[in-house]
Amino acid sequence: MIQDIAPYQFDNSYQPVPPDADSYILWYDSQQLLLQLNDNQITLPRFSDLENPDSVQWVYLFSIDEERFYWINQRECPLEEPFQMLPIFALRAHTPRHHAYAGLVGFHLHNWYNRHRFCGRCGSALKPDEKERMMRCPDCNVMMFPQICPAVIIGLTHGDKILLSKYRGRNYKDYALLAGFAEIGETIEDTVRREVLEEVGLPIKNIRYYKSQPWPHSGSLLLGFFAELDGDDESIRLEEEELSMAIWMPREELPMEADGVSLTNEMIMWFKEHPEDF
After folding, report:
1. Cα separation of 20 and 57, whole Å?
2. With contact defined as beta carbons under 8 Å apart, do 261 and 1 qualify?
């Protein structure tokens, strides 16, 4: 999956040391990242590419092996050609893989920093803490930590069939599994039951955990589960505000191939290639 960048090691411990000339710059505008693009290869800018590195406001984000990555906190683009903007979602298909992943995780933190500039209690400007990744209010001492939203991906099966869906009103048009965010006061297993009932109106049983995946696109931690249809009635009552369609698809008709990116794809491929587990 997209976070599997071995042999490189991702380290998100907070160590706000100043950048050096080789440190990498992550600068975002809306849903895009600044970089160079050559065929399928991305090159992230470094501080050595800046005319005046001391003039930019930076925030240390994380490291991968010995490479450090910094968010540049300014409205104006810090560099011109040969750098260009690439949509965040497109990073999934580019190499080197560990730099693509850096761009995605940086986008999660970019959004968090932008949304936490002022204290929600007293309105004062928040300041970054010196010891851990946190924004602190200097007046009322409110502490704000990066937010991660738990969400479920659900592979609902019935014999040799799995339920596939398509989202309504999104750019992503391929098949997906049922999914949704956890709500206040419910267990993650209850989230699985609720989402299936809400989206396709089906009862389920035998919920079992598969695997998790950080998903920086939505600031989520995805938790993958398989579950079985409870009973033999496969009739779908579609939630049309969320989904454009949902169908039961036999294992031998599944059109997907492994993409090495998403938890959804890996779960569908697991069902396709490991019938002994279902």
Report:
1. 14
2. yes
Q: Domains along the chain? A: 10-115 (no CATH), 118-146 (no CATH), 149-277 (3.90.79.10)
Contacts of 96 (CB under 8 A, 6+ apart): 41, 42
Q: Is residue 64 within 8 Å of 22, Cβ to Cβ? A: no
CA distance 85 to 218: 20
Question: What's residue 29's pLDDT?
Answer: 94
pLDDT band for position 106 (50/70/90)? Answer: very high
Phi/psi of residue 198, nearest 5 degrees: -70, -40
Q: What is the pLDDT of residues 125-136, one digit of tens each?
A: 999 998 899 999
Q: How far apart are CA 15 and CA 224, in angstroms?
A: 32
- Six-digit token pair at 107? 């986008």
- pLDDT at position 2 is 92
The number of angstroms, rounded, from the C-alpha of 202 to the middle of its chain's C-alpha atoms is 28
